[in-house]
User: What shape does this take?
Amino acid sequence: MKQFYLSLALAFPALLNAQYCTNGGPSSTADSQVMFVRLVGQNDSIRYNYTCPGTIGVQNLTNLSTSLVAGSNYQLSVQFGTCNGNYAGAGEAWIDYDQSGTFDPNESIGTWQGLPPVALSVWSFNVPLMSQNGATRMRVTQQEAGSVPLDPCAAFQWGSVMDFTINISGGVDCSAYPGDERSDAIPVTTMPYTHSWSTSYCYSNQNYVYPSPDIYYLVLPTVQTAFINATLCGSSYDTYISAIDPQGNVLAYNDDNPNCAPYSSISIPAAGQDSIYIIVEGWGANAGSYILNITQGIVGVEEVASPEIKLYPNPADNGFVIQNVSNASVTLYDVAGKSVMSIADYSGENIETAELAEGVYTVECISQGKTSVQKLVIAR
Assistant: This one.
């Protein structure tokens, strides 16, 4: 049955791509309603007073914001009330600390259950040290006839749902954590390749299969590469791995490797592939630390790239060098196979690329009778 759902997810990717749920909330403007919200931050505060009647759906109040510091303690005050009759219900608030686009159970900062009119609910909470810096959301919900814990995405008849903006500092600077999107994929420039990393923070759900956070890697096969092997064996959580081409077509995927379950591994045919994206994520909503190992299988030809010949830096900006060659013939080809640069006698000097467009190029280097063919990424 699991494979059926995986196939369904791959066929309809847009259905599972998570963002803030904004289609729920109340369908009536009567009765139960959050009447007051206050959160005092570092140098500013959210102070919201509501007047009846209520609002249908999720109320977007993200123009109201306050600033919080990771590791610090704050108090959120909420008045659960009514716009008409008094009926029992429940209330809850969440802050999306990891900016995943979802309000997770561990991001709840307070709950209430009772029958209005009631005293002001005051919840003390601590902002986790691993919260992601930047703007995120706080959601406050009151649901008539509900019970805690509430579903932050639920649709119901009476109550209210409202979103505010929270600006977090002092937490994790996610600019140092590439790979959250395909456009920011982590480049794999040499193989074998090993990377120990974690999906527990700074990463959101961009892939199709599961709601877990995922990380993208970019592999550039050479003309000698027959296949790519990628494994997550030895990771700390139940993983899932997949590979796609630049058009988003699925090349391979795996949940459990029989030799190291619940970890995953794939073998990807590389013939004809200019670029391959390998995506690491968890089964279901799982996240944690992982170890990614990538190797390649080489076509049996006489002219194989010398392991000492390397392009540096790769990706390149305005220039690169080819290490460990002398008196070499160098040719750069674009993705269409057209020669865009030729150097007849190269011995390690800087090769200027400022006039070349961003993208993937093939570098052919002939030195001492041996031919090295490698991929070069130009990114600015």
